[in-house]
Amino acid sequence: MINYRFFYFLFIAIFLFSCSDPDENEEVKKPGINKSANLKGLGDSASELLSDNKFTSMNIEIVYVNGYAPSEKTLTNFKKFLEARTYKPDGITISLRAVNSSGKSPFDIEEIAEIENETRTVYNAGDEIAVYIYVTDGRSEKDKENEFTLGSAFRNTSMVIFGETIEKFAERPNAPSKSDIEAAVFNHEFGHLFGLVDIGTEPQSDHLDKDNAGHCNIEGCLMEASIEFGSGIIDEIEGGRVPKLDELCIRDLQAAGGR
Predict the structure, then answer these.
(1) pLDDT tens, position by position, for the chain (259 residues)?
(2) According to the lineage, what is the superkingdom (predicted)?
């Protein structure tokens, strides 16, 4: 006699397996990848980025849309900024990779997070902390008539640079060079990953801009809101001088384990 009950349960088992979440199956194929440590809130990994207590090296993956690669001058300035503020005895590695346009501009942060999920390949591993930076070919949906978002840090190890917006700013009369604007925005947004100002890194003094959360109220500081939103970046960068962190921001980072 044919055992129909056996075949029924066999069919159900095959059906459930074939309909399982493809992402779960992918994780089975890649048992060594734990993405959760890189999907936390902004500022949650500030001390880990700054100190060598847990991570002795840093791996930065820059994914850019074709035509929007950051310049060599930008990358040189960016790496010097990181080395000056962090303890990473085993070094800081920066890799670049081009991707096609998503065609989704203008972007909201949720869309940027989706792109990260699709294109990010580096995650924390052993004593190495990983950071993802996406350089877009479009603009932020938050742009207003006289206020433009040049970049945004949105997770503990994730940030976006709005390449098209930076390019348009560089084309304005008397504007700084594109590489100088890029460098200022790269450094500024990483300052947010470092927990500045009062985003995961405790301020050692009162220098928080009450009108712009997460920013410094000291004139000329890298963490002024005008660097991120572009409203005054042309005035902030004079003669190729990329703004630096003021002493109050540096003390905050030192208290959190940085230089």
Answers:
(1) 444 343 333 333 333 333 333 343 444 344 557 899 999 999 999 999 999 999 999 999 999 999 999 999 999 999 999 999 999 999 999 999 999 999 999 999 999 999 999 999 999 999 999 999 999 999 999 998 778 899 999 999 999 999 999 999 889 888 889 999 999 999 999 999 999 999 999 999 999 999 999 999 999 999 999 888 766 676 777 666 899 999 999 999 999 999 9
(2) Bacteria
What is the value of pTM for the model shown? 0.86
The fold adopted by the segment(s) 33-255 is Collagenase (Catalytic Domain) (3.40.390)
